[in-house]
Amino acid sequence: MAEFRITSDDDGFDLRKLAAALAESQGWPRDRVSIWENRGGGGVVVTVDDALLTHHEPDPLTLPMHTLSDVHKACELLRRRDPSLRGVDFLALRDEAARFFSAGWSIADLLHALSHRHDGAPWPRGEGYQGIEWLEHRLRSWKTPSGDIRPSVSQETAQLRIVGRAGLPDDIGMPDEAPVAPRRSATPESARAAADDARRLMRAGTRTTSDGLGHRERTAAQITRPGGRRNPGPGDPR
User: With left for phi above 0 and alpha for psi between -120 and 50, is residue 67 left, alpha or beta?
Assistant: First the structure.
């Protein structure tokens, strides 16, 4: 683990926030960076996983395409990697791929889209699954009904990683699988029948004593039936 300290002569400066902003600007995952206050010497101490400080050459398949030359070279690589593209006119392939590259997709993202549907199911391969129509059909799965480009597989992974670090649920913003049916209220007849059943069960499970019978009669006397008729009490004539 690499470690460094951040100090400041200004006591009102939030050094923890500065350290967090520094880690974010470097693209360091927060779960691999630790920040805590240095109570003895002041300031904050930041520890970083050594692997994050090792320089790695970026994978050319994961780099964004910004220029026409980049798009041209990327399409040449796509044709070499995907046999179904060899019969596709190069200009048509370049025009179709350029839209996805302009949306931030990489070569690896396009290769994934050409081999998998948006839901993760693999596309069929072999004889008959070639040509410009098959290319457009596969890429149409990665477009919205209005024709906009959906997030690529790497973009979705990055979004889920950010959501996970923030502690938010994975399905945030996703529509419900099925609408929840509204609950209906019980009719008065059903409610009264359920109450009668509950009273019978309570009576069956309660020991009958003289005190219990007296309490039951006093309680029953307070119940008013439909029509204003009240149950007879203990001293009322039957």
Answer: beta
- Residues 97 and 64: their CA atoms lie apart, in Å, by 12
CA dihedral 166, 20, 1, 53 (to 10 degrees): 100
Q: Round to whole Å and give the CA distance between 113 and 120.
A: 9
Bridge-partner residues for 47, per DSSP? 3, 34
Give pLDDT tens digits for 29-79. Answer: 878 888 888 777 678 888 888 877 777 677 788 888 889 999 999 999 999
Residue whose tokens read 């081999």: 115
Burial status of residue 18 (CB atoms within 10 A of its CB: 0-12, 13-18, 19 or more)? middle
Determine phi and psi for 28, rounding to 5 degrees.
-80, 130
Which tokens is 192 given?
């009264």
| CA neighbor of 155 nearest in space, from 62, 75, 25, 60 | 62
* 23: enclosing H helix or E strand: helix 15-25
Q: pTM surpassing 0.70?
A: no
- 197 CA to centre of own chain: 45
Q: What is the pLDDT of residues 157-214, one digit of tens each?
A: 887 766 665 555 556 555 555 555 555 555 666 666 666 666 655 555 555 444 555 5
Q: DSSP label at 61?
A: G
